[in-house]
Each structure stands twice: as C-alpha cells, then as structure tokens.
Amino acid sequence: MVIRELAPNDSLEALTELLHRAYKQLADMGLRYLATHQDVATTQRRISRGTCFVAEIDGRIVGTITFNPPGIAKGSPYIEKAGVGHLQQMGVEPGLQRQGIAKALMTHAENYARLNGVAEISIDTAETATHLISWYERIGYEFKEHIQWDVTNYRSVVMGKKL
After folding, report:
1. 61-76 tens-digit pLDDT
2. What is the SS3 assignment for 127-153?
3. For residues 69 and 53, what is the distance between their CA atoms, to the nearest angstrom?
4. At what angle do helices 12-22 and 40-48 cross, to 10 degrees?
5. What is the rounded CA–CA span in Å between residue 148 and residue 100?
6. pTM score > 0.90 for this model?
7. Tens digits of per-residue pLDDT, 17-35?
8. How remote is the C-alpha of 33 from its chain's centroid?
9. Are 153 and 32 within 8 A, CB to CB?
10. What is the pLDDT of residue 138?
11. Which stretches of 49-126 are DSSP H helices?
C-alpha cells in the first residue's frame, strides 16, 4: 500500500463514490454524514481547504483522509482553537476495512500535521457511532466536546490528540 497526496489527475468522481461506499454502513445506521451523500463539487470544496491523502493498492485508490490546517475548520470551539488541525472525510473501501488502512491514513495525516507545526489534531463523529469513538480512543484521541453540525442529523463528538 502507498499513501500519497491526491493528484490532479485522480478522479474526484471516483473519490466521491469511494466516500459514499465507505460511509454506507453509517448511512444504514440512519446517520447522515455529509460524506454519505455529498456531490463531487462538495468533495472538491472540502479537499481544497486542506491536503487530501489517498491510500492506493495496485494502482487503485482504496482509502482517503483530508487534513485541514489550523484556522480552516469552523463550528467548534476546540477545532477553532489556535494550533489545532482537523481531519475529515476519512474512509476506506468497505471490503478492505479492518485491515489497517484507516490507521495508516490517520498516522500519515498526523505525521504530516506534526511536520507542519500543528500542536493538536481533531476529528469528529456521531455520538452514536460508538465503534468509531472507541477506535479513536484506542489510537490516542480524547473527548473534547459535543457539537451539532448544520449538515448532519446527529450530535457529534469532537475528539482531539496532542501531536
């Protein structure tokens, strides 16, 4: 597996479809994450504010994560705190989940943030997605606050980690 920055010739349509597939289990739980239904223009807008990384196996993109530097993400006091970067749109091809790809993407994005002077990193998820919250806790994230985003139908848990 190779983790690299999204290239200009990578298909945003394919990336958007990957996000839809990766978030389908959450959609089936009744959770309306933006990545469950966003269009290509929304994918473009979201990745344009930061750095999008992809995991690639045999030339096929199988996972993604987007890092936003401090000062970009808005809507949460913790996320807006000076020195806090934000991770979003993390997803892995359903048939390849639970094989370490998400962990590798997270580690890559965290290392990138650290190398770029970021002191802390944040992520958020639905408070009822307890399997994701537990996983984030296992890799060092701690609860910071709750937030209700305008584009979701659930209350989010905002988590953070010192780098």
Report:
1. 999 999 999 998 888 9
2. CCCHHHHHHHHHCCCEEEEEECCCCCC
3. 14
4. 100
5. 30
6. yes
7. 999 999 999 999 999 999 9
8. 11
9. yes
10. 97
11. 101-115
Separation between Cα atoms, residue 108 and residue 115, nearest integer Å: 11
N-term to C-term CA, the chain: 24
The beta-strand segments (E) located in the chain are: 2-5, 51-57, 60-68, 84-92, 120-126, 142-147, 156-162
> Token pair of 91, please?
């997803």
Type of residue numbered 36: T
How far is the C-alpha of 124 from the C-alpha of 141, rounded, in Å?
Answer: 10
| Cβ atoms of 89 and 64 closer than 8 Å | yes
The first and second tokens of residue 152, run together, are 């979701």
Cα–Cα dist 84/74, whole Å: 11
**126: nearest Cα among 144, 140, 146:** 146
